[in-house]
Amino acid sequence: MARSTPTRSSALAVLLLGFAAQGHTAGFHKRLLLQVSRTALDGVLTMDVDSGERCAQLRAGADLDHDGLLDAGERQQLKDRLTTMATRALRLDISGAKVAVVVTSAKLNLRDDFTTGSGGVSLALLLGMVHPYAVTPGMTLTVEDTAPDFSHVEIEVQQVPAADAGLTPASKGSLEPGQKLKVRLEALGKRL
Amino acid sequence: MRRVLWLCLIVELGSCTKGVQPATAFKVNNRAQLVGGQRALGDVGDFKLSNGIIHAIVQDVGYSRGFGAFGGSLIDVDLVRANKASATQGVQGNDYFTEMFPAFFLQAIEPAKVEVTADGSDGGPAIITVSGRGGDFISIVKIANDLLIPKVDTDYQVQYILEPGKQYLKVVTTVFNHDAQHRDSQYPLAIPFGFITLLGEGQHLFVPGGAGFDMRYYLEEVVYKRMSMLEALPGAVSSMWATEGNGVSYALAASPENANYMPTHRDFYPEATARDSLLIPIASSSFLGTFWARPPTVLKYNDSFSFTGYLAVGSGDVASVQKVIYEINDGERGKKPTPYGTLSGRVVEAGSLAPLDNISVVIQAENGTYQSQARTQAKGFFSAPVPKGRYRVIAVDGVRTVAVADGYVDVDEKGAATQNLTMERPAELEVTVRDTQGRLMPSKVSVEAVYAQTGSEPPRHFLYDLKVGERFLPSDLAPDTDDPETRRYLEGAWLLPSGSTSRQLRPGHYKVYASRGMEYAVVAKEVDVKAGVRTRLDFALDQVLPTPGWVSGDFHVHSINSVDSSMGLDERVASYAAEGVDVVTSTDHNYVTDFVPTVDKLKLNDWLKSVVGLELTSLEMGHFNAYPLALDPGAVTHGSFRWFRRPPGELFAQLRGLGKDPQQTIVQVNHPRDTVLGYFNAFNIGTYTGTPIPPTSSFPLDTSPLPDGGVSPYDPSNFSLDFDALEVFNGKRDELIFTRTVPAVPPPGPEPTLKPCAPGQVADCIPGVGEIIHTKVTLPDGGTQLQPAFPGALDEWFTLLGQGRHITATGNSDSHGPKAEAGTPRTYMKVGDTANGSMRGLSEAAVMDAIRRGNVLVTNGPFIEVTVNGQEMGTTVVAPDGAIDVHIHVQAAPWVDVSRVTVRRGGKTMGLHPDILEVIPVKPSDQVERLDVVKHYTGISDGSFIVVDAQGDKDMWPVQTPYEQASIEISDAVGVIGAAFGFGNKYGKYKPVKVQQCKPYAFTNPVWVDRTLKQSLKAPKRVLPVSASEPYEPGHLVDLRRLYGAFHSDPE
Questions:
Q1: B5: confidence class by pLDDT, cuts 50, 70, 90
Q2: How far apart are CA A122 and CA A131, in angstroms?
Q3: Does any domain span residue B13?
Q4: How large is the angle between the packed helices A72-87 and A53-62, nearest 10 degrees?
Q5: Boundaries of domain holding B309
Q6: Are B329 and B283 in the same domain?
Q7: What is the 3-state secondary structure (H, E, C) of B617-686?
Q8: How far is it, in rounded angstroms, from Cα A127 to Cα A157?
Q9: Within 13 Å of residue B695, how many CA atoms lie on the same side as its CB?
Q10: pTM, two decimal places
């Protein structure tokens, strides 16, 4: 049974690296899966925040009574705040008609750490929007989004086919800030 | 600030001097981070756990790279080794673990997400969490799952937890009732939860208790023979299972939390001890089911249920990994350490007293159960942990008689006891085999002995003991009488790739045979070998049956790169040269292997040609070979691809896409009638129609639509005949070739529930001797169709030929190890001059062309050449008047019996079976020439085919040993479990016999006969492009609510 025992110099290296890591801005990893049907636009949006300073700030900001722990009410606040952060930059329209983002359910995961430490957090949102006009083939769905730290967003758009139509391959993209994903919509079926 | 820095440094150093490396969990982004090893399947994008002692990989979401269906499983586990690692070559580890996933009875998790939920940076455990809903990984049990698994929305979560300083993984599985309708989850019957583990060959399973190393026969002869009961599942019981392997071993045990399935049914398991909580109902080939948890009868909405297993890693023997299990102290889950003592000793050689290392020592309790196993290390010492009790030790080695200690010793908790053993000194036999010109030649030597026992007991009951890990010794399967010729077994079968060898063996009297497959004579010499003495034998072998213009090949071959084979590449390649096969095709399960480097290394290029191939192995749809292929050395599986939830036509097309030349790739359907592994079984193909008919099995595959409404891959509309070859003759298994008829003397077994046929009754009854056992199937249009209860591939091939389909029949060994001799059977191709001389000059294209054309003979001994009106197999003869001349030339080596040759005509006008034009008796002879005749037949109708076969009645011992040790297939195990729930077997003792001698059989591919000249049209084959790393594409719309539901959320 081999065990490695750190030496003094390697311990110092670990310490310095740790401080270095403390100084680095943690990242947001945002993913969006949209499903377009004839009258609706549904989706799942997830956002993972790396452990580190950013998470420490987010957690501390939610700790209203400054006791170092996040109780149920504080976690709800944190969830609401993250939901706003996650959806603020999301823009959807179908051939110019804007589709307002509607969050029907939200889940927060603090990775079993309910303290105000720097542990990572994850958010999942269930989106459910109804667009005002039934989609006809040839219309275009435009998606624009950015992560809170202006990193890219992974997007996939699926189209629910009409009964007599084939399954259109999903459109995938990695959106950088300012970029838009345009998807031509085919003959669509009812919402699943 | 500086003071703070120094303070932190002191704190850091303080924690370092504890000497426990933290555990970490992360997503793999570099191949140097992988585990590595023979069974390693991890790749970039998967998730890793490590604590400096052990490390493990959990596969990301997607399709399983192991034998299962889904990703999210534990796929690699090993001790951390100080081996080389690089981003391109990966890691030189020793992972010998294939796959493990939780099972909710026979349902698994279909994961939606795999994530790091604790990376270990806080000094605590590192955790990888898999979330998802239930998925049927094997659809033949869907009928059981539908009855037993509640129809509410349950979420499953698996946490793989690695703590600092521990040599085991803790696996916590939780079931959550998150049903949106707020329904309670009710389990109508007590079904157990646990784990499915795919260990693979190379890990020898040991179950403490009555089984030891022999779960195979323990289940069959002890457990499955018990009364089936609805109250509890049949299975072996134990406190753990463990394995022995080369440098690494594994063990699984359960925490007491909710481990109450077996204990609450203790009356049904009389052999269970207080320590036992595991139930093992299935241990077949590489598939091990271990169950212990019993969910509550009602799981209320918002409630959850958990069970915990511990997977320990050892250094190669059972003792090393048992010690880890015994020392587990997990207060959170109620797992306390198991008190134990130590039994140790030394094994030395008789006479010289030299210590013997690498000897297996099994620890047996006084009540006859097997407790542990250890390997002797340097200087012959062994040591094993055992609970308090009385034990003795048994030393096992392949070239020495088993040594058993005199008497038993007491071992107390935390105590120690010693027992030493002395083993005999082996003899040594040096052998050379040369051709008639004196040149050393690749060959095989079979060392035969005779046992003393007569009677009806199988040799495994007295000749060797599988429970202590002795190796299987093939026997002649003749009824044992006073005649020693009926009591023969093989002490060894040695491969001589270079024509010479020197091996150790047990002292005794032997008859030693030299052989080189069906083209060579067999020469035997008797010898006495004594302990410590080297004896030499020299042989000269004559090629009595040269086959100019022909080459033999085996197109279904497994090596260590298949999960269910432990045959190393050297031994695998050597076996083909030794058996005189000219062409060997690598067809490992979902792994593309190239034998060329090994052929080069062994300098066998003049004797053996190697072709790259693959066996695309699905769980239930069938097994499909493709060759010749291009090798993709970069991918983890060198080019294999996802089969799960894909229809067969797509698989065939993508197999072609892997080929060197896609349009020239041969796609071969293997063993089409082999239980759940058979393609024709999967689609319920009618023997007399060649098309899908309603299922006749109690456990049909699930054809209901996919969750998104898509068509099931098993839907009859997805059946495809877009393949080139059909493996009609697989290994030594006659029951897969021939449709089952009622034997004159049925073997022992239970009486069938079906009655003998009444006058005029032709189905769903037991007919007369020699008749086919039929069942009657009702078709969707209300009509009926006769279907054999146990169809054989030969009849189904004839049906397809009769429909005008030019599908080439092949015969292949499907060899996974030494018990299945290489090239038994084999396929001969007529390739012309390129066949003669060194195999370096053999044209691979000519071989494949012969297969495509059908100029191919399938045989395990007799060699048949046939022409019709002077034309060869695979061609079409135009006979306007329906008259043909059939030239039949049969040859065989003297040791191969041929007793009759049958000429058959089939075609558009045939009935259920081809017509038998003639049966030609062949006189017994030891001459190579057996038959050379020209037969004239008339009245041959348009669209006919002619096939000739030859059969013998005497077995081909010892060159080809009997099929003696049939595996327990998944379908057998499911059948036993099904019987526990009332799904019985109506055929009883009339089911096909699997255990059988190997008798001569050969058949030709057809010569086609038409009355008029016809132009055949050849459409190009469908090809799908292949990408090296195929992403998981579900092929259907994602269920967003299910995906969202799988996201693990903190409590509100």
A1: very low
A2: 28
A3: no
A4: 120
A5: 21-333
A6: yes
A7: ECCCCCEEEEECECCCCCCCCCCCCCCCCCCHHHHHHHHHHHECCHHHCEEEECCCCCHHHCHHHHCCEC
A8: 13
A9: 14
A10: 0.80
The domain segmentation of chain A, as residue ranges, is 26-184
Q: Give the closest-approach CA distance of B388 to chain A in angstroms.
A: 25
Domain boundary among B400, B423, B446: B423
Instruction: Provide the shortest C-alpha distance from residue B5 to chain A (in Å).
Output: 9
The CATH number linked to B478 is 2.60.40.1120
Question: Which CATH number does the domain housing residue B272 bear?
Answer: 2.70.98
Does any domain span residue B1001? no
Residue B65, SS3 per DSSP? coil
Please indicate, yes or no, whether residues B43 and B53 belong to a single structural domain of this protein.
yes
Please tell me which of A19-23, B63-67, B670-674, B962-966 the model is most confident about, judged by mean pLDDT. Answer: B670-674
Segment B559-577 shows an average pLDDT of 94
Q: Last residue of a domain, which of B397, B423, B449? A: B423
What does DSSP assign to residue B880? T
Average confidence score pLDDT of chain B: 88
Beta strands (DSSP E) in B731-849 are 774-778, 784-788, 808-812, 826-830
Number of domains in chain B: 5
pLDDT at residue A8 in the model: 26
Q: Regarding predicted confidence, which is higher, A136 or B567? A: B567
Q: Mean pLDDT highest for which of B296-305, B352-361, B970-979?
A: B352-361
On whether residue B167 sits in a domain, the answer given is yes
Element (H, E) at B972: helix B970-980
pLDDT band at residue B639 using 50, 70 and 90 as cut-offs: low
Q: Are residues B280 and B196 in the same domain?
A: yes
Q: By CB neighbour count within 10 A (0-12 exposed, 13-18 middle, 19+ buried), where does A96 fall?
A: exposed
pLDDT tens readout for residues B991-1028: 898 899 999 999 999 999 999 887 666 667 777 665 43
For residue B979, is pLDDT > 50? yes
* Cβ distance of A12 and B20 shorter than 8 Å: no
Q: Are residues B133 and B265 in the same domain?
A: yes
> Are B531 and B633 within one domain?
no
Output the pLDDT for position B891. 98
Those residues of chain B whose CB sits closer than 8 Å to some CB in chain A are: 5, 8-9, 12-13, 16-17, 19-21, 52-53, 79-80, 82, 115, 117-119, 121-122, 165, 167, 1036-1041, 1043-1044, 1047-1050, 1052
Domain shared by B505 and B559, yes or no: no
**At B736, is the secondary structure helix, strand, or coil?**
helix
If asked whether residues B109 and B191 sit together in one domain, one would say yes
Domain check: are B473 and B444 in the same one?
yes
Q: Is B84 a domain residue?
A: yes
